[in-house]
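Tutorial handout. Part one gives the primary structure; part two gives the three-dimensional structure as tokens.
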Amino acid sequence: MRVVVEGVSKTYRDRSGQEVVALQDVSLAVAPEEFVALLGPSGCGKSTLLGIIAGLLPPSAGSVYFEGARRPRRPLTATVFQEFALFPWRTVQANVELGLEELGLGPAERAARARRELEVMGLAGFEGRYPHQLSGGMRQRVGIARALAVDPAVLLMDEPFSALDAQTRTLMMEELLGVWERTRQSVLYVTHNIQEAVFMADRVVVLSRRPGRVLADVPVDLKRPRVESQQGEPAFVHAVEHIWGLIKSQARSALLDPGREGP
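Part two.
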């Protein structure tokens, strides 16, 4: 299934009643089985755009639509958040089953799906534990398992590993890519980390400082499956340097034009 964002803008009012333009005429698409990273300066509207695609926020202008969504009882999107967003009073198994309950699946099917995704995420044997009994990386694995369990047409990920330490973050990136190789779901992945975006994605969409606009759509010419050694390849280095140049230009323009909304 293909997700299309067409001319999306978002304006809201801050606490003082002033109008703030968060996004301006953003257009992009995520093809079936494609992994797209969304990157830009802090405050450029990346999370706002994800919320609009997820149906959690209405756009002020433009539209989001999904091409080829046919299967009944399959949600269009599922979101993995920066915060783990697990219910502390529910076990690991019950947290993963939450979305399946909302889909109206019976207990046996819910349990089977949840166990399958927990096994995929390396959490077999932890079904009866509670979130406070898990490490940060394990809690985020539960969040990913919960999103995958509902078999969404598009998986939305909002800086899912930013709260983790560097070592755990690297391991989680590799695990997620392994899961993606098996499922080949469409993914839109928000991050601040340029190297992470290039390593994970087929394309990196770069947004400007606020109001967020599409500055560039950068293809990543690296073979899959991805391995850590590819970060030394010329294609990786070139993509990182190109994107960093775009981000730096935004920072410089913010200094030269401080009256305009910045990151």
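Part three, for discussion. The mean pLDDT is 91. Residues 85-152 form one domain.
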